[in-house]
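tool_call: predict_structure(chain=1)
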Amino acid sequence: MNQEFSTADLIDIAPDTPSCETQFRSFGRRTHFCGRARTVKCDRDNGLIKQLMNTNSDGEVLIIDGGGSLASALMGDLIAGAGAANGWAGAVIYGVIRDSSAIGLMDFGVKALGTNPRKSAKDCAGEVDIPVSFGNVTFRPGDYVYCDEDGVLVSETAIEPA
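tool_result:
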């Protein structure tokens, strides 16, 4: 997918495109990223996230519904580094990360609510590739996700910049 886009321009092209209302912070050097969605729903447990980031990807975006918890990080530098090395475009995390300075040096995109140095459980509790909802939008596996400094868009079909 074309990485040169602006979510503001895309929503002007397709005004009915759902825009996530959650106010995320950006981490990682990749401020613009897009790809097909994969999803994880988990509660203070990043075992499934680690498994997915350690698999090969064709530039997908991992959408993580952590319930908005600020209690423990769902991604750190090792998991983000694995995602970058395996071809993932980035992650959108309805939760927090840790190791933000190290992630900030990576060619990887991360949107998250903030940071917390506390580790998560690693029991692989949760669900993968199911519809998840936050910020007044639903992300389904295979949807197209577009992220930049202005926000996160999700669409069933690709939106091509003008």
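agent: The longest helix spans residues 77-85. Proceeding to next step.
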